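Predict the 3D structure for this chain.
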Amino acid sequence: MEMREKRTWTVIAVAASAVVILAGLGLPMLRESVEAVGGDILSQTSDTLTVRCLGPEVALTLNGFEGEVTFTNCFPNSTLSGNDDPATMNGSNISCTVQGPETELRISAQVKESFKFAVMGDSQGQNGILAEALEHVDGCEFVLHLGDMTPSGQPSEFDAFESTLRAITIPVLTTPGNHDVKLDGGDEYTSRFGSSAYSFEYSGIRFASVDSSDQMIDEDEIEWLRETLTGAERKVVVTHMPSYDPFGDNHTLDAASCDRVRQFVLEEDVDAVFTGHIHAFNYMQVESTDLIITGGAGGTLVDGVHHIVIVTVDETGFSYEKVDIEYAPPVSPYVHVIGKDGSTLDITYEDLMLMTLRENDSSYENLYGNIAGQGHYRGVLVRDLLELVGGMAEGDLLTIAAADGYLQEFGFLNAYPDATWLNLQGEMIVSIELDGVLAPTWTEGPRIAMLPEDGLYSNSDCELTSYEGQGYSVYESAGARWVKNTFTITVEAAA
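Done. Predicted structure below.
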């Protein structure tokens, strides 16, 4: 997989400017420019400008711009100064109209000495659970989301995430997760949330958010953290991937990055480090540093229950409350199959159980080479479902989508494997049962599963059984092919 270039480590955003030449002098002069400190410029037209706040204090310098300016993600009790026209407030947004050649606008929030904030991670497209989590943030000044907001970084998935956030009027500060940067999702992330590495200060606490979505925090990023946190009264580091895995499966930064982070937080006497990635809760203290993993805001759990963490800050320091989320997901009682002629069929779970079932022990390899998903799968051949709506031919496109919008594309031989592909991939099924537990009690089902004879669908197997532009050629993980909560199966005729 190509690693995306990490984003600028500043909270200064400068918009593109028009340039004119001073008559007779041949000197360039900026006719229109804007610069934001403490926030990022998300969009600009000739008469509109949108700035996302990445902290309680934002300064926006305008040179020649006239029109409507909107600050989004503002902290509670924020006020706007620097403009004569009155501001309009709508939730966490503040808007005003700017007229004049040079203007400096400033957003300032009233900061509390004692306060609460919420920390959550890995909602991963399960926005029903996220919505329930957000009901527990009343009284908090802001939310930290630790990444993996989406299943695969697609615009529709980010749309659904942002739509869910509209239920609250306090700011959400984010860091990208490895799922968020899939399939060019890194660009999608920055276009919506701004810089992937930034810092802000609240009540003497300096928060530094660093991008670990590629499983690394390199020496340059450590140096940025060091410079950013220098002189801070209290220090907090926010990132997606942890430097330790209490569950022993090595779901961490790469080994060198783990060493760097561990050494850094001890040398710099960091007060707290918040990470997600592992879908569980864990708290440990190393010397004077609190290390908290909270990845329970929606993704399939490794341990425990879905949860968020409420952090209370006062003169004595930080205290933490794990808040469990009670959520009964809506059950889609069928799989929706669409043929290439437009015919459709909704097959209930009960009907699936009455079809011919295939079963076998199986597992898959993920992006990092870890083996996961081990168990005994039982379900219906994908090709048997396709035959109910007219089948599939070589050259047709098979798209399988989850209830949360995550999708994978397949070719003819995935569903109708020949001897070679059968040996590598095995049969492709819609599994409705894992280790004797049926969907929907089995919360990942129904799920696509591959049943190779050796019981492991490896990354090598995936590479050899992926059509051009699909599967491994897009994202180098066999596990990414195993679509959880399968909802629609669609065949499109060859172009």
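Residues 1-12, 16-31 have pLDDT under 50 and may be disordered.
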